[in-house]
Amino acid sequence: ASTRGLRCSSVFAAAGRDGGGGGSGQRHGGGQTWKTTRAKTRRPRQPPSGRGARTAMLMDEVCLLSAPKEGTEVPKLIVFDLDDTIWYPELYMMCGAPWSRDELGRVTDAGGEELRIYPAARESLRLILTHGAFADTRVAVASRTTQGRWAREAMALLTVVGTTTLREAAGDLCEIFPGSKKQHFEKLRAKAGVAYHEILFFDNESGNVREVGQLGVTSVFCPGGMSQ
User: What are the start and end residues of every segment in region (Disordered) (predicted)?
Assistant: First the structure.
């Protein structure tokens, strides 16, 4: 059955694949073709399964937050994964620190490879930070990367709206460590003082989506990252 146009309760996003990828290191997102400097081995993506997960899935559609209609319930907390959800390449594919930002705002690793925010991720973050409907909504990050120091350093350089960095947008709601994402969300829920059903989550890994969905979090599967 087609899931085109799916909307789940209090969610204004659709999850899907925008094409590209594979072992060539080529990605398509937001109308751009992104190529990394080395061939990448991408981890396989499987659609979430299992009962009890609050999951919105659109396998061949965009994954982008959009402005809610008047009167629509808005999440109090919107959580993003990092690797291949907000940005690409994934950190394990890169040379890592030291990171640098040039006069055009491009962030590169020690080898000169650029870490890019997906255009749809940037637009979704801009909407949360500037649209009146999201005035009481907070941004958070939940990542299982083993490169936590690299992630925080990169977040402090990547700008999302004007001069506001991704690190500033998330503030203290930033949980980056290996392990079950249920642990990340337990910490985020306690810090933010919200209930699980008041949270919206974007991730490119089916296991994370399924696991977090079991908590009652509305979880969106983005196998191709945030895309338009």
Answer: 15-53
> What whole-number distance in Å separates Cα of residue 125 and Cα of residue 119?
10
Which domains occur in the chain, in start order?
Answer: 20-221 (3.40.50.1000)
Q: Is the bond leading into 89 cis (omega within 30 degrees of zero)?
A: yes
Report the run of H or E that residue 181 belongs to, with start and end.
helix 181-192
Q: Which residue has the tokens 């933010």?
A: 192
Q: Please provide the DSSP assignment of 76-143 as one string.
A: SEEEE--BTTTEES-GGGS--SSPEE-TT--EE-TTSPEEEE-HHHHHHHHHHHH-GGGTT-EEEEEE
Q: Please check whether residue 75 is in contact with residue 56, taking contact to mean a CB–CB distance below 8 angstroms.
A: no
Per-residue pLDDT tens for 143-195? 999 999 999 999 999 999 999 999 999 999 999 999 999 999 999 999 999 99
Q: Report the catalytic residues.
A: 81, 83
Give the global pTM: 0.77
86-141 tens-digit pLDDT = 999 999 999 999 999 999 999 999 999 999 999 999 999 999 999 999 999 999 99
Hey, which residues does 143 pair with through a beta bridge? 176
Cβ atoms of residues 16 and 59 within 8 Å: yes
